[in-house]
Fold:
Amino acid sequence: MSTFRFAVNVLPKDGILDPQGRAVEGSLGHLGVDGVSAVRVGRRVELTVEAGDEASARAVVDRLGQELFSNPLIESFEVEAR
Amino acid sequence: MTRIGVVVFPGSNCDRDTLRGLELAGAEAVPLWHEQGSLDGAAAVVLPGGFAYGDYLRAGVIARFSPVMRAVSAFAAEGGLVLGICNGFQVIAEAGLVPGALLRNRGLRFLGRDVHIAAEQLDTPFTALLGDGRALRMPIAHGEGCYYADDATLDELERDGQVLFRYVRADGTRAAVEGDPANPNGSLRAIAGVRNGRGNVAGLMPHPERAVDAILGSDDGLPILRSLVEAAARAEQGRGAIPVAAGVR
Structure:
């Protein structure tokens, strides 16, 4: 068994209302920043998985991404090996 | 007396009000702890408001995997009556027992105040005693109550009569989606509550159990709870023995 580190990045799907992203975007003027758009705010989950090989570790992370970390109706996720 | 179970998760905070509301509605109301795998013979189950498991990760998602939710899902699959209120609605939406998802309020603020809703369907186990579709006043208390489903699903819900409650203005007219205080969270199509296709599982964001006595400012919520209790009593008689979901306690 080895340990594998992953990060799962969860973001609101395109077209889904993201009030946090909108609020962040709305604040940029106060910072004197312009030219920034399409701000989306999501969530990042980092985890360590013990498994025989990377593929089976990744399968566990994919399942967690699908069933727990994201709601597939409104969010998408990407798995990143670290 | 008809027994109705009220699920108690760590972080539930409307369970006492819900138990009391169900008692006023004529039920024997019993708490069901989140770690139990049986529904103790309840003829209907209510998932109350609060912050189950701290609302960590996403409101309702961790609660979805608790032992009691396995029993609730099995009960719902057999046609058992389930009502989710506020956080309970978020839990049953995450569990896929009703369509859609609850997003962060459009205005980003947690809102605790009275709203008006009206029932769209009056022949359901949750609304049968409302009489008509007049505006009902009751409180909301949530940060993630913006009802979302994709357009195709929303069309389907409308067509199949699955939109149970909508936010309305005090005069009963339908609230707009954006920029209308009568739709507090910006819910699509002003949807405040939905039911599943079979009609035995429903959820709503406002709190009927906080509007069960004139001294609370409104008793408009009581007929919703009474509808559920009556429907549960009928279901119990119809079935004879109450189907209890497989216990794994």
User: Anything to note?
Assistant: The CA atoms of residues 25 and 39 of chain A lie 6 Å apart. Strands of chain A lie at 2-12, 43-51, 75-81.
